[in-house]
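User: Could you go from structure to sequence for me? I need the amino acid at each position, not a summary. Structure tokens:
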């Protein structure tokens, strides 16, 4: 599988690498690079965190957030990818889900319950 992960936490990044060992995994920690990767590549799965830059409970209107990436995806070649919002910021996650309403394969799975549920969906 081709997988894109937008995540800024090193511990979570490590978990993604463990979960998806053997797959093509691209990880970025900022919205600009995520948008570039989405523009340049087709992914089976896209995992989106909302709060970036080591910040928590960030307003979606700030520049470097997963929300900015979510707004971009429906206009991209990845609009049919499976998308997982894994943020612990419930307001930001809801904003991302609303931005992705044109996409059919979107799930909100907070990272704490992530491993078991995500592995079921990716099989």
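Assistant: Here is the amino acid at each position, in order:
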């Amino acid at each position: 599988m081709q997988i894109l992960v937008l995540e800024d936490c090193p511990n979570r990044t490590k978990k993604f690498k463990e979960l998806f060992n053997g797959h093509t995994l691209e990880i970025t920690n900022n919205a600009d690079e995520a948008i570039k990767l989405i523009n340049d590549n087709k992914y089976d799965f896209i995992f989106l965190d909302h709060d970036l830059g080591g910040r928590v409970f960030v307003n979606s209107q700030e520049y470097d957030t997963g929300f900015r990436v979510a707004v971009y995806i429906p206009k991209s070649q990845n609009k049919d990818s499976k998308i997982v919002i894994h943020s612990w910021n419930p307001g930001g996650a809801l904003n991302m889900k609303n931005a992705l309403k044109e996409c059919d394969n979107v799930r909100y799975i907070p990272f704490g319950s992530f491993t078991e549920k995500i592995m079921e969906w990716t099989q």
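One structural detail worth keeping in mind: The helical segments are 10-19, 31-40, 66-72, 90-99, 114-122.
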